[in-house]
Amino acid sequence: MACPLAQENGLGARVVTSAVFFAVGAGLILHVRRVLLRELRQIRKVAGAAQSVLLRPLPPRIDGLDIAAAQLSADQGASIGGDLYEAIATEHGVRVVMGDVRGHGLGAIGTVAAVLGSFREAAHDEDELGDVLRRLERALARHLCERDRAGHPSSGPGSDSDTAEEFVTVLLLEIRGDGEVHALNCGHPWPYLLTRGRVQPLVRAEPLPPLGPFPLPARLPAESCGRLRPGEGLFLHTDGAEDARDTRGRFFPLLPALTAAVRDGPVVPQAVLRSVLTGLLSHTGGRPADDVALLVLHNDRRPLALKPGRVSQYVPR
């Protein structure tokens, strides 16, 4: 405003003054834009690091088992949501959890963190799979109670809260060194057993109710699921995979997609995962309406030759 040209009324002075103001304004806008983009990149970097710690990438191999896993969040811009999975090598065998929190997207991450944190400790500490499940139940109850108090300061033990409607479906697997598989299922879809050219449910037993609404029974014997032999695989999933719909409302044909993935060759976790994900994204037009988690395990252990009369064992390659 103190520029001498601004005091003149000639056309040339006005043009020059307008150009100066335009240049200054454009410079300020570009500077603000650069600052905002830099802050956005930093926020995304921090969020990505936090999400990768919560649902950390699984190693491609654990104790002789090849592994491939992936998750799709229903929330745009989020890499994780209300589905969870983990696989840990312990002295009891490889223990695996797959779960699905009520709801989806970023709103369910707190419950995911509580359940996963408990599993990562209990998988090593507890001898029995049933005791691992009880630890998850207690962790979920504590989390919901703390969340209820934080949202409702006056709430008491008998107060009405939306946490009473919260639940988590949970599948626990224990794959021992000899390939024996034991499971506990609280309202979750059972895995599929994969062999060359064949897909079948691992177990047809009725699962327990999901964690949250009902207490666990006094006795929790793990379900014996037979043996995962060398060359065979397991496909674990959340119900978002089976419930995914296309624009005409048709459900994703998960079983035919799995059968096609193992029809012409051996069970390769990455290939199975890629095939199912490609079909799922094509079916839903690129973004499913619910969170989806997929986990493929393949037994790559080789038999250990023993003397006649002794039980066959398997060792990692």
Description:
The protein has helices spanning 11-54, 109-125, 129-151, 239-243, 254-262, 269-284, and strands at residues 61-62, 65-72, 83-90, 93-101, 168-175, 180-186, 192-195, 198-201, 223-227, 233-237, 292-299, 302-304, 313-315. The protein is α+β, with helices and mostly antiparallel strands and 317 residues long. The protein is elongated. The termini are far apart. The model is unreliable at 42-53 and 152-161 (pLDDT under 50).
Task: Please render the helix and strand layout as text.
Layout (H helix, E strand, L loop, with lengths): L10 H44 L6 E2 L2 E8 L10 E8 L2 E9 L7 H17 L3 H23 L16 E8 L4 E7 L5 E4 L2 E4 L21 E5 L5 E5 L1 H5 L10 H9 L6 H16 L7 E8 L2 E3 L8 E3 L2
Antiparallel strand pairs: 1-2, 2-11, 3-4, 4-5, 5-6, 6-9, 7-8, 7-10, 10-11, 12-13
Helix pairs in contact: 2-3, 5-6
